Amino acid sequence: MKGYVFHGPGQSAWEEVPDPGIKEPTDAIVRVDAVTICGTDLHILKGDVPEVQPGTVLGHEAVGEIVEVGGDVRTVRPGDRVLVSCITACGRCRYCREAAYGQCLGGGGWILGHLIDGTQAEYVRVPYADLSVHTLPAAVPDRDAVLLADIFPTAYEVGVLNGRVRPGDTVVVVGAGPIGLAAIATARLFAPERIVAVDVAAARLEAARSLGADAVADAGEAPDQLIADLTTGLGADVVIEAVGVPETFELCTRMVRAGGHVANIGVHGRPATLHLEDLWIRNLTITTGLVDTHSTPTLLRMAAAGRLPTSELVTHTFPLDRMQEAYDVFGAAADTGALKVVLGGPLREVVAVQPD
Ligand SMILES: NC(=O)c1ccc[n+]([C@@H]2O[C@H](COP(=O)([O-])OP(=O)(O)OC[C@H]3O[C@@H](n4cnc5c(N)ncnc54)[C@H](O)[C@@H]3O)[C@@H](O)[C@H]2O)c1
Ligand SMILES: [Zn+2]
Ligand SMILES: [Zn+2]
């Protein structure tokens, strides 16, 4: 089969690789029908995630059909259409028993396209299939469902739920990439008073508005002052960090009200300063997290009911074998306007769904 293989920083290719086979009786083999590229894959290609060994097939999000299962798999069978979650779960360890699957100690967690071959291929082996794939409702098309493998549960769990968004809140989302936009969309489910998006890119702020942000602010134009003005000097109830650089984390701690929540989603490569000399007196809650995907079944029901704006986030589609082109478009988001790019067998045409 073909897969997108990491060969070390700056080197990768869509090339022939061995077909995956069942290794453990809890495995399933999935034929990939739709797959997407994550910002984290770009981090891997830059060399920011050194655990990824050269030779690994990338990708941790997919929709496909089960073609083979090991003898211990009980909940899915060949022919089932499934969502492959970005998080694999053994189901038995202490963390899995607490639904903290991202921290799985039994060989799960984020392993696809990280520690083992991933989903950017024609087929993928999914360990612990019973808890690591979700049977898909027919009402959710592949292109929409694939966004529930990572970005929607991440934004919802690590941003909105950790941030404890409540009715009437002022919510600020810093970073309006796919994750920040999904955070805006899922924060709306809690009827906040207002959502403010902060970014440096005008196109991203426009996307934030169309996904339900009530106000937008350029990160370079004193967004903390805008938030103070909107909240009679108090600050926001909840601030969600969806960029992953020290400046934006520190900005979040300046925009939150006393007693409020800062929910960090961004993957940080550098230390950020925690200004305890100012913050100790402000009763803040700061949360961090890797997604667990415990919310995926709920999100799937909501997607089937048309309650999630998944299709608005897909800007480009490609056939699977044009993976490199898809990476190029996704990697140059500032020029191409890409949010999520989706690849798949039945998606024959190259389509810019929302061209610039
Ligand atoms: N915690 C988790 O489990 C988890 C899972 C997936 C992704 N992530 C992380 O979430 C973050 C967001 O992911 P994404 O795919 O949306 O990334 P992205 O790179 O597409 O989006 C980031 C956005 O931040 C904006 N930005 C850059 N610098 C800024 C600044 N100084 N001020 C304000 N905005 C700025 C960019 O214009 C862009 O719109 C990344 O760090 C990603 O690695 C975390
Ligand atoms: Zn991801
Ligand atoms: Zn586990």
Number of domains: 2
The CATH architecture of the largest domain would be Alpha-Beta Complex
Described by the principal axes of the CA atoms, the overall outline is globular
What binds here, in terms of ligands, is: nicotinamide-adenine-dinucleotide, zinc ion
The CATH topology of the largest domain comes to Quinone Oxidoreductase, Chain A, domain 1
Structural class: alpha/beta
Helix-strand pattern, N to C? EEEHEEHEHEHHEHEHEHEHEHEHEHHEE
| Overall pLDDT score | 95
Number of strands: 16
N-C termini distance: 34 Å
* Tally of helical runs: 13
* CATH C-level of the largest domain: Alpha Beta
Largest sheet: 8 strands, mixed
What portion of residues belong to β-strands?
Answer: 15-25%
- The CATH superfamily of the largest domain turns out to be Medium-chain alcohol dehydrogenases, catalytic domain
Query: Can you tell me the residue ranges where pLDDT is under 50 for at least 5 consecutive residues?
Result: none
Q: Please compute the radius of gyration using only Cα atoms.
A: 20 Å
* Helicity range: 25-40%
Keywords: Metal-binding, Oxidoreductase, Zinc
Family: Belongs to the zinc-containing alcohol dehydrogenase family.
Region (Disordered): 1-20
Cofactor: Zn(2+)
